[in-house]
Design a protein that fits this description.
Blueprint (H helix, E strand, L loop, with lengths): L1 H5 L3 E5 L13 H4 L1 H28 L4 H20 L22 E5 L13 H5 L1 H11 L10 H17 L4 H21 L29
Antiparallel strand pairs: 1-2
Helix pairs in contact: 3-4, 6-7, 6-8, 7-8
InterPro entries: DUF4389
Protein name: Membrane protein
Keywords: Membrane, Transmembrane, Transmembrane helix
């Protein structure tokens, strides 16, 4: 599996989906509204279920699998919408309305299900241990939203990419690699804060579309 190859429980892959429209990015905020409405309610459910998972881990050391799968689905949905909209502008393909993995979509997220989690860490990792990560994520995505495009460095870089698209018809590959690296960092922190892994997110910017270190043929769709 890719997890064994990368050593990371959280795998984020993305493919720059060329060609991209020069002007569609200007109206994606309108086109994404149905997704943002759906994600508003899904994130409420995510928060409630995360509280349930907290107590389940505290007493049993296990993250209930149905809750894990649902919360992973919400993160996947959010990542696809972010990738389409102002978290990357990496595709013009409209995101599907589904919690399931979509092999043909150019943005992917997977998290290895943990068979056992620390009962002690669950008390401190999501607020105390994660504080340094939260500071960095605030720089990356500002206030954040369901599509974590509320501002910050990612929004600025994506704006540059949008202007470059409008002027030249090309998405600068250097900006793409950096944006996906920052998004990957945010998703790793999100999984840790949501108690879905005990693996502390590395202080490392893994740039580029494919998950770094993934063996050929084990990383899933590109």
């Amino acid at each position: 599996m890719a997890f064994a190859a990368t050593g990371q429980p959280v795998r984020v892959d993305a493919r720059l989906d060329l060609p991209l429209s020069r002007w569609l990015w200007l109206v994606k905020w309108v086109l994404a509204i149905p997704h943002w409405i759906a994600l508003f309610f899904l994130w409420i459910a995510f928060a409630i279920l995360s509280v349930f998972a907290f107590f389940a881990i505290l007493f049993t050391g296990r993250y209930p699998r149905p809750v894990f799968d649902f919360n992973l689905g919400v993160l996947r949905w959010s990542w696809r919408v972010s990738y389409y909209a102002y978290g990357a502008l990496g595709t013009d393909r409209y995101p599907p309305f589904t919690l399931a993995e979509e092999p043909d979509y150019p943005a992917h997220l997977d998290i290895a299900y943990p068979e056992q989690l620390s009962r002690g860490l669950v008390l401190v990792k999501w607020w105390l241990l994660a504080i340094p990560q939260y500071v960095l994520v605030a720089i990356f995505v500002g206030g954040g939203r369901e599509d974590w495009a509320g501002g910050g460095l990612v929004a600025l870089l994506v704006l540059f990419a949008g202007v470059a698209l409008a002027v030249t018809g090309r998405y600068p590959l250097g900006i793409f690699d950096l944006v996906v690296g920052l998004d990957r960092w945010v998703l790793r922190v999100a999984a840790y804060a949501a108690l879905m892994t005990d693996a502390y997110p590395p202080f490392r910017l893994d740039q580029g579309g494919p998950e770094p270190g993934t063996l050929t043929g084990t990383a899933g769709p590109r």
